[in-house]
Amino acid sequence: MTNIEVVKSFYRALDQGESDKAFDYLSEDFSIIQAKSLPYGGVFEGKKALGEFFQIFSQVWSSVKSENVEFYSEGEVVIVRHDFVGTGKSGKTLNMPMTQFYLVGEGRIQQAEPFYQDTHQILKFIEGQ
């Protein structure tokens, strides 16, 4: 499986609500780096930490999905460009472009680093819920 196929499979599993299957595509020392300004910001290291991240993330978002997903790959780096569509606890929806960088090695995702187009807009959205 190519690096881009690993990330596509990860997205497909998440999209289908199969989090256990999605976690199978992660390395044991997987880390995700979120913008520190967000309520779920910081560095989460290890598969268990990703579960902790999702617990914090779900306190803000009732549901999230990716639309208009595009995948690009160069060596160990896979770049995913998509529209982030998040529904807050109030039922309101936020839609914004987002880019994520994935580092893939030995058939597993080792690191994810998302870049939201406007974290200030996310914070305003959260405050307005």
What portion of residues belong to β-strands?
over 45%
Computed Rg: 14 Å
As residue ranges, the low-confidence spans are: none
**Rough shape?**
globular
Summarize the main sheet.
Answer: 6 strands, mixed
Tally the helices.
Answer: 4
What is the residue-mean pLDDT, rounded to a whole number?
A: 94
Please tally the β strands and state the result: 6
The SS-based structural class is: alpha+beta
Into which percent range does the helicity of residues fall?
25-40%
Distance between the termini: 42 Å
**How are strands sequenced across the largest beta sheet?**
2-1-6-5-4-3
List SSEs in N-to-C order.
Answer: HHEEHEEEEH
Describe this entry's structure for a reader.
The structure is a single chain. With 129 residues, this protein is α+β, with helices and mostly antiparallel strands. It is built from four helices and six strands, in the order ααββαββββα. It has a six-stranded mixed beta sheet. A hairpin with a 4-residue loop joins strand 4 and strand 5.
In short:
The protein has 129 residues and is an alpha+beta fold.
What's the SSE blueprint?
Blueprint: H1 3-15, H2 19-23, E1 26-34, E2 42-45, H3 47-60, E3 61-74, E4 77-88, E5 93-105, E6 108-116, H4 119-127
Question: What key phrases describe this protein's structure?
Answer:
4 helices, single chain, alpha+beta, 47% strand, 32% helix, 129 residues, 6 strands
